[in-house]
Amino acid sequence: DKRLSMMSQVVDAIQAVYDGLPPEKQKLVKLRYWTRPQLLTWDGIALNLNVSRRTAINWRDEIVTAIALKLGWR
């Protein structure tokens, strides 16, 4: 099935990118995407990481771009 194959590719790309991240960026992913319920804003996440809000968002953008590149979407 095409959808299942695509979902598997997405999961593999996310895992590969995540595994290659430094610990502080892995923590960003955990805080933003893998913590439920999501109680932190970007300001709260940045405070947790001891960086500015802008830096946290830039890191997010870099991670999303890396995943897109891994999938050949960009």
Topology:
Elements: H1 2-19, H2 23-34, H3 42-49, H4 53-71
Structure description:
- The chain has 4 helices and no strands.
- With 74 residues, the protein is an all-alpha fold.
- Helix 1 packs across helix 4, helix 2 runs antiparallel to helix 3 and helix 3 crosses helix 4.
- The longest helix has 19 residues.
- The radius of gyration is 13 Å and the shape is elongated.
User: How many strands, what sense, and barrel or not for the largest sheet?
Assistant: none
Shape: elongated
Instruction: Kindly report the average pLDDT value.
Output: 95
Order of helices and strands: HHHH
Key terms:
77% helix; 0% strand; elongated; mainly alpha; 4 helices
What's this, in brief?
9% of the residues are buried. With 74 residues, the chain is mainly alpha-helical. α1 packs across α4, α2 packs antiparallel against α3 and α3 packs across α4.
